[in-house]
Specification:
12 strands; 4-stranded antiparallel beta sheet; alpha+beta; 2 domains; 5-stranded antiparallel beta sheet
């Protein structure tokens, strides 16, 4: 199993139902992803923006760029936790101690501003001079429940999972590009608070534009999708 196959397996994992997971009204992530093939995720947009200026970054593409699946270590982790009755977070801590690794930090993307299409929970650790992550994807509805079991990946940068970036384009002939990174936006490489999508939406509403957000440079609608078709199987 390669990295993309591992991410796809996580995104389509049925995490069942839980009393903290109120998916009956809104639908669970695993239910929405159940019919999607690996190719559907690969060819899907990298990022997109709605008419309110809210950016969403594909978790599949974000992970594909940030992590590499470690099949052998993942198998060792599964063998180590096979008979465990502890929580996943306890299992991860015990696993890191068992192999002689050092935990660097743990995080949940829900705890800070995040544009990812799904919540992730993870523990970054170091082992034998390399950096790894025990990663879980939230597959339920309520963020308190419905996570996959931890999968083991390597990281090129211990903060790679925190580095969220995406792009959207306007529909004008010049296709001005809006880039998002770390909570800030630039247009064609230049930063200005005036071009924040929320600010653009506010100004558009003042003149009666409600169906879309106009480009700061040319006024054409922002298409809101970065397909990045160069990302191929």
């Amino acid at each position: 199993m390669n990295t993309r196959e591992a991410i796809h397996a996580m995104l389509t994992t049925n995490t069942g139902r839980h009393m903290l997971d109120s998916g009956g009204a809104y639908g669970r992530n695993w239910e929405r992803n159940a019919s999607k093939s690996l190719d559907d995720f690969i060819t899907g947009p990298y990022s997109w923006m709605d008419s309110y200026g809210c950016l969403t970054i594909s978790l599949f593409h974000h992970l594909d760029a940030a992590v590499d699946f470690e099949a052998a270590m993942d198998a060792e982790y599964l063998a180590f936790t096979h008979n465990s009755s502890d929580s996943h977070l306890e299992d991860i801590s015990n696993w890191i101690e068992h192999i002689g690794g050092t935990e660097i930090y743990s995080d949940n993307s829900y705890n800070h501003e995040s544009a990812l299409s799904q919540v992730i929970q993870y523990t970054v650790y170091e082992f034998d001079g390399e950096q790894y992550v025990a990663l879980q994807i939230h597959q339920g509805c309520d963020v308190r429940g419905g996570y996959t079991r931890p999968w083991i990946f390597s990281l090129s940068d211990e903060y790679a999972l925190l580095s969220e970036s995406g792009s959207v384009y306007c529909t004008g002939s010049e296709q001005h590009r809006y880039d998002y990174y770390g909570g800030e936006w630039t247009i064609d490489g230049s930063y200005s608070r005036e071009i924040q999508p929320y600010a653009l939406q506010t100004e558009a509403r003042k003149v009666g534009i409600t169906e879309y957000i106009p480009c700061y440079e040319c006024g054409y609608p922002l298409e809101g999708t970065d397909t990045r078709k160069e990302v191929s199987a």
